[in-house]
Design a protein that fits this description.
The protein is α/β, with parallel strands linked by helices. It contains ten helices and eight strands. Helix 1 crosses helix 7. The longest helix has 16 residues.
Length: 261
């Protein structure tokens, strides 16, 4: 091939250098890989690669440290916000974020999440919500929908027996230390663009020192849901979105109108 055909002006796509060459382990159709790339792109565009520290706990999200060329620290299950608090307080000039699933952030890590937000720690929390424990066998999570089938709720989640799903993002938004709280998705090009803007805003907010930013990404788990990627995305839109509607919940420390009602 004539290499002169490929000129700098013709470049329309490239992988951000903040991501490395490692092959991702995620199931086909999983949203984790897309969110990884968005975080990496934002870090590159803000030119903060050497100033960023990521905290990865336990779950499918733990191996994010294997794909991003930044300083990463692994935390015990659910403890990422506590570790991020320590990193940010010791090095306040750094950009510190956690990357957590719903089984981690909204279950064993509920206390760390709530107290970090209530204290107003200047960190960014990226929360992947697929309504199930993806890594350990598809068990019911705090975010599992009413009637939703899992390996530990084979007849569907029974509210009387198993309680209500936990809308942890709305709960965090009510805390005075939370500055920016939003819910997004990455299943379409349009949603990817919105999610990227939210991720960038969460990073930029750290320069304001106003409090914690949380970006929830509603995603699928086609292997845990026992569906194809296409079926899982449709099921997510039809079932997850009505219960976990995408959109901003808190901006600049103030609840948006829909949350005031």
């Amino acid at each position: 091939m004539d290499k002169t055909i490929v000129k700098a002006g013709n470049l329309v796509y490239r992988r951000t250098p903040v991501m490395n060459d490692n092959v991702m382990h995620y199931c086909p159709g999983c949203g984790h890989g897309t969110v990884h790339r968005l975080i990496a792109e934002v870090i590159e565009e803000m030119d903060i690669q050497s100033e960023t520290i990521g905290i990865a706990p336990v779950g499918c999200s733990v191996l994010i440290y294997n794909y991003l060329e930044i300083d990463m620290q692994e935390a015990a299950h659910g403890r990422a916000p506590a570790l991020a608090t320590a990193a940010k307080r010791l090095m306040p000039e750094k950009y510190v974020f956690t990357y957590q699933g719903d089984g981690d952030l909204a279950a064993i890590g509920t206390a760390e999440t709530i107290h970090a937000a209530n204290r107003g720690e200047d960190i960014s929390v990226f929360f992947i919500n697929n309504g199930i424990y993806g890594m350990t066998g598809g068990q019911m999570a705090p975010t599992t929908l009413p009637g939703m089938v899992s390996s530990t709720s084979p007849y569907g989640r029974d509210i009387k027996m198993m309680g209500n799903p936990l809308k942890i993002t709305e709960l965090v938004a009510r805390l005075p230390g939370a500055y920016f709280v939003t819910r997004q998705a990455v299943h379409t090009p349009s949603s990817v663009r919105k999610a990227k803007k939210a991720i960038r805003r969460a990073f930029e907010n750290q320069t304001h020192k106003k409090g914690l930013s949380l970006v929830e990404i509603v995603s699928n788990c086609n292997s845990g849901w026992k569906m194809t990627p296409v079926e899982a995305n449709k099921w997510m839109v039809d079932n997850m979105f009505p219960f976990y509607p995408p959109g901003d919940i808190k901006l600049n420390g103030k609840l948006v109108n829909k949350e005031k009602e």
